[in-house]
């Protein structure tokens, strides 16, 4: 059944769950998903060993074996899937923070959670001198959560105010950046190089062994975030309205922040702190859908951005595979300047 609500067309599905689907959000999500599929096939086909689309599908269906199967299934497919999953996680995390702070600058890499994850990695590599994937991932998770707890309590005063959260986050990120620089300056060359490479964020070297547990965790966190979308929308209507609908403001904000930090930290533990996807993807999705009411288009745009950035990173310089974070930093910096300029103009 089709219905209209505030000028937007919805499809109301009958049944015990009574699901209501925004038609515009659905169309945009399907279009972005189709583009992601095309880019995924392209990513699986290009490289040192170039394969045709038919050869890629032959490998995926099990009809082709040999070196083609190893290249597609063992080397390229994990990279593509991790880009899609982590891109969605970063985008949803950014959307949660931007909704709570009511500011397009509300992003885990701007507020400082990604910097905290990097601090955790540096402590593991340079202080504890442990250089294993599990330890680095655990350090990123602990660093991200410790930073989130610190920022939350410093910013908390009769509840969480968006602007105060951003300012406190930027201040903590600045302090942690100084600590990170000090640790790097005192480190040995090899350990420091490993830490510096992790800081940029990269999909190079992603394999099934490490990516499957991380992707399962990220997918669980994404489902949890989708379940929290309704109370988040209540908060967007204002605290008084949310309270009248039975929403516990402080507890709900804390759960949402925990979920968003977990999404960021889990992604960072796998590929490093890739910047600006969380900042840009929610705003791009809002401009496409003319609404901020759904995580589905946001997640789709995040997956598209990270996958496209990784393809560009592999082909930007012939013979060299750049970390994907280099590409997102380059284009994200341009986006951030534009966003600040737009906010300055709107405020004048």
Structural commentary:
- It contains 15 helices and three strands.
- It is mostly helical and 348 residues long.
- The protein is globular and about 65 Å long.
Brief summary:
The chain has helices spanning 23-45, 53-60, 67-101, 108-111, 113-127, 133-155, 162-185, 189-200, 208-227, 229-236, 239-244, 249-271, 277-289, 295-315, 324-347; strands spanning 2-5, 8-12, 20-22.
Characteristic key phrases:
348 residues; three-stranded antiparallel beta sheet
List low-confidence stretches. Answer: none
- How far apart are the first and last residues' alpha carbons, in Å? 45 Å
Our count of helices gives 15
Q: How much beta, percentage-wise?
A: under 5%
> Strand order of the main beta sheet, please?
1-2-3
Q: Return the string of H and E elements.
A: EEEHHHHHHHHHHHHHHH
Largest sheet: 3 strands, antiparallel
Shape: globular
Could you tell me the radius of gyration in angstroms? 21 Å
The helical percent reads: over 70%
Mean of all residue-level pLDDT scores: 85
Strand count: 3
Which class best fits the helix and strand makeup? mainly alpha
